[in-house]
Amino acid sequence: MKLEGKVVVAQGGGPTAVINQSLVGAVLESRKFTQVTKVYGAINGVSGIINENFIDLTQETTHNLEQVAITPSSALFSTRDKPDEKYCQEIFKVLKAHDVRYFFYIGGNDSADTVRIVNEQAESSDYEFRAIHIPKTIDNDLMANDHTPGYGSAAKFVADAFIGINLDNRALPGVHIGVVMGRNAGFLTAASSIAQKYPDDGPHLIYLPERPFDLDKFLQSVKEVYEKYGRCLVAVSEGIRDKDGVPIVTKLRKNKETDAHGNVQLSGTGALGDLLSEIVKKNLGIKRVRSDTFGYLQRSFFGCVSDVDQHEAREVGEKAAQFAIWHNIDGSITIHRTGYYSVDYKLSPLKDVAAKTKTMPDEFINEAGDNVTDAFKHYLMPLLGTNVSSAHRLRAPRVPKILHKEL
Amino acid sequence: MKLEGKVVVAQGGGPTAVINQSLVGAVLESRKFTQVTKVYGAINGVSGIINENFIDLTQETTHNLEQVAITPSSALFSTRDKPDEKYCQEIFKVLKAHDVRYFFYIGGNDSADTVRIVNEQAESSDYEFRAIHIPKTIDNDLMANDHTPGYGSAAKFVADAFIGINLDNRALPGVHIGVVMGRNAGFLTAASSIAQKYPDDGPHLIYLPERPFDLDKFLQSVKEVYEKYGRCLVAVSEGIRDKDGVPIVTKLRKNKETDAHGNVQLSGTGALGDLLSEIVKKNLGIKRVRSDTFGYLQRSFFGCVSDVDQHEAREVGEKAAQFAIWHNIDGSITIHRTGYYSVDYKLSPLKDVAAKTKTMPDEFINEAGDNVTDAFKHYLMPLLGTNVSSAHRLRAPRVPKILHKEL
Q1: Residue A13 — left, alpha, or beta (φ > 0 → left; ψ -120 to 50 → alpha)?
Q2: Which residues from chain B sit within 8 angstroms of residue A388, using beta carbons?
Q3: Which contiguous run of DSSP H or E holds residue A86?
Q4: For chain B, which has fewer Cβ within 10 Å, the N-terminal or C-terminal residue?
Q5: What's residue B407's pLDDT?
Q6: Cα–Cα distance between A17 and A251 in angstroms, integer?
Q7: Do B100 and B53 share a domain, yes or no?
Q8: Looking at residue B23, what DSSP letter applies?
Q9: How many Å apart are CA B204 and CA B211, to the nearest integer?
Q10: What is the domain-level CATH number for residue B40?
Q11: Is residue A192 domain-shared with residue A127, that is, in the same domain?
Q12: Which residue is closest to B267 within chain A, CA to CA?
């Protein structure tokens, strides 16, 4: 029995460079089915549903959809709304009124949880309805997935940024601290390790939320690296915390000497980088200390995209439509690595993904907790796509000195 | 009479994405001349000369030089040293000892001034010597040049960043402040205007060092834009100052409520963006206010390069060798626009470029002093290269509401 009705696609949470690939994959695939009467896009995620803010995507040309697919950030806009039961009842009232039978929600673990709640409500109200979660997050923190669409491109951004900063730091030496997104999972910060090409290349130290951050140990490590190389490049996750789980940015702000920023969000401010820089300057007496906070650039910069990530983001969108419309089943699309490098997609139970957070496994972090392992680099490399960046150095020999006698 | 001797190439000041194109252009062209006995690279600019830190670039393969050419940041490293007369005497002692007759210095207006001083010293000491300044700076602030190598690629970075942030800001609305490098000249910040594609696209406000920054006017303008679009994207130069010339970052820090950062450098800290965000939050009561400081990413990010910039950076390096070795004359290579879009290169007197700063001409800035003109965009467009980014939107029509009556 074919389930006839409309499709609604929506996007939730933080945008990524390839989130519109998933949108376009779901839309184009849905438009092929005769039982699909219309394909709607909800504006601003679930809040667009309760407000009946739909656009009719069957009136989009395939060509324009393809142009939107290569444009970063959520073309249907986003929301941070997290529906409760009452919110869900509103969602259903609207979906029923518009005869919507298929709902595809592109988002992270919060969005997966939304889909789970909406699905439960559909079942309990006997409304014939398919809802599928399509994965995306630059944080790469979804359970049941080898990795998530959006991560590869953001990781490429972080890698390209650190390749450049490492060269800059060699040319004009000092301490440089790069702050990367990732509240609970260090995958994105760990991508900085791709810049470690030559033996003295940074980042020399990588701090992840998975390991407690010890300020004294940090200062000691920076000192050692600086003494060895005359410079030190550090990659820090915005979510680093101390052994009691207190975020370092909160802790440093409590210090009267450095207390400054009135806000508490981790992204969209340079606070953590600036505070760590101050501490390095004061304690180690190093003059040239700089920090860069990558901020929103890492999730929406135009043109820094992994082609592998692009392909996979497209496919998870297509697979959502296929599972829901051909096979009439609910769930979360998950990515599974089947070779090096090949993947396949499954439909996993929503409860396996919803509201859970995957963090870096132990084998990806070195023993000292201040760098990654080769196993992580091996894991990451194919996700960066086929056009991985690589810096080159001059290798010309030194010329013997004439005036200054060499030792 | 051919002047026989060695060539020394060096790089000074802040790195750019294409500075190694100029290096490689000068090296490969120099290696073709029979009167050139060796081509050396000085490590860390002029400080490499006085310390006799040379590498022998005649031992580099052409292939590796081409790989280095496409790698960002100064391959010979850099320096902030600014030679005085005594320093210059040291330079000459070394150059004479190594029989160096040609000196090519790739850098900004400070480096041009170094070349000028070195040249004067050569003349007064009767040492037969050619010194040429090769232009580079992401700030685009060299006199006598239509624009400078390094600017196009950095401008492309800023444009791509704002295209992405504009989309992000549409998806999750609020106020976003992007802080761009440029202490005295606003050219790089102005490149953010390329993101203004659709009528409501940001940056809605662009603040440059060329116009006094008025905090009250700023808050009023942000309020107006926010009321109109429900969001506001602002591009700010790190060098903005008030009507008395006091940098805004210094001024805001003096305010006890926001005083925080102990350092005074403009780049390598998120201070200005964070302070402006605080003020918007406090005064306008807008909750979601974020800032991004582009920092070092804009001058050394791997892979964000304008091909036009790449070609020109290569050519100014080649031209330096040609002028010095074929024609036996000194000066600064300058770029002149001859059509739309074509350029030619001249050798200009060093005094026309050295230690001077070009700022945005009046016709590039709107009357209110908070945006750029079409004349600026026309000027900038060809410098971004042949692969200019462009965002695309969904254009599907709204679906009539069923439950919520439309007005």
Answers
A1: left
A2: none
A3: helix A85-97
A4: C
A5: 59
A6: 32
A7: yes
A8: H
A9: 16
A10: 3.40.50.450
A11: no
A12: A290
Chain centroid to Cα B263, Å, comes to 23
Q: Between vectors from CA B312 to CA B311 and to CA B317, what angle results, nearest 5°? A: 105
Examine the residue annotation and report whether B139 is marked as an active-site residue of this protein: yes
Both A192 and A66 in a single domain?
no
Domain shared by A52 and A94, yes or no:
yes
At A337-379, the pLDDT tens digits run 999 999 999 999 999 999 899 999 999 999 999 999 999 999 9
The alpha carbon of residue B367 is apart from the nearest alpha carbon of chain A, in Å, by 30
CB within 8 Å: A395 and B60? yes
Complex ipTM value: 0.93
Residues of B in contact with A64 (CB under 8 A): 392, 394-395
Q: Give yes or no: residues B194 and B88 share one domain.
A: no
The number of distinct structural domains making up chain B is 2
Cα angle: B377, vertex B382, B384; to 5 degrees:
90
Within a domain: residue B405?
A: no
Q: Is residue B328 part of a domain?
A: yes
Give me the percent of chain B exceeding a pLDDT of 90.
Answer: 84
Which candidate in B81, B110, B139, B309 is catalytic?
A: B139
Name the burial class of residue B336, with classes exposed (0-12), middle (13-18) and buried (19+) by CB atoms within 10 angstroms of its CB. Answer: middle
Token representation of residue B220: 């009023």
- Return the number of other C-beta atoms located less than 10 Å from residue A123's C-beta: 12
Nearest CA in chain B to A262: B278
Give CA–CA dist A159/A354, Å, rounded: 29
Of chain B, the end-to-end C-alpha distance in Å amounts to 87
| Cβ within 8 Å, pair A164-B73 | yes
Q: Are A119 and A23 in contact (CB under 8 A)?
A: no
CB pair distance less than 8 Å for B56 and A399: yes
The A5-11 sheet, strands edge to edge: A54-56, A36-42, A5-11, A100-107, A130-135, A331-339, A342-348
Q: Which amino acid is at B81?
A: D
- How far are the Cα atoms of A301, B270, B280 from residue B290, in angstroms, in the given order? 16, 11, 10
Partners of A332 in beta bridges: A133, A348
3-state secondary structure of A168: helix
Q: What is the pLDDT of residues A278-330, one digit of tens each?
A: 999 999 999 999 999 999 999 999 989 999 999 999 999 999 999 999 888 88
Nearest by CB: B74 against A58, A73, A171: A171
Q: Do B64 and B108 fall within a single domain?
A: yes
> Which pLDDT band, with edges at 50, 70 and 90, does B264 fall under?
very low
- The region, left, alpha or beta by phi > 0 then psi within -120 to 50, assigned to residue B262 is alpha
**Which of these, A182, A257, A248, lies nearest to A216 by C-alpha position?**
A248
Q: Which two tokens stand for residue A278?
A: 């101050």
What 3-state DSSP class applies to A226? helix
Q: What is the CATH number of the domain that holds B293?
A: 3.40.50.460
Amino acid at B326: W
Residues B215 and B284: their CA atoms lie apart, in Å, by 13
Both tokens of B182, joined, read 């440029």
In a domain, A392, yes or no: no
Residues in chain B: 407
Q: Are residues A216 and A292 in the same domain?
A: yes
d(CA B177, CA B290): 6
Cis-peptide into B341, omega within 30 deg: yes
For B45-95, the pLDDT digits (tens) are 999 999 999 999 999 999 999 999 999 999 999 998 988 888 988 998 999
Residue B134, SS3 per DSSP? strand
By residue range, what is the domain housing residue B377?
A: 154-300+361-384
A39, B396 Cβ separation under 8 angstroms: no
Average pLDDT over residues A245-255: 81
> Is residue A223 a part of any domain in this protein?
yes
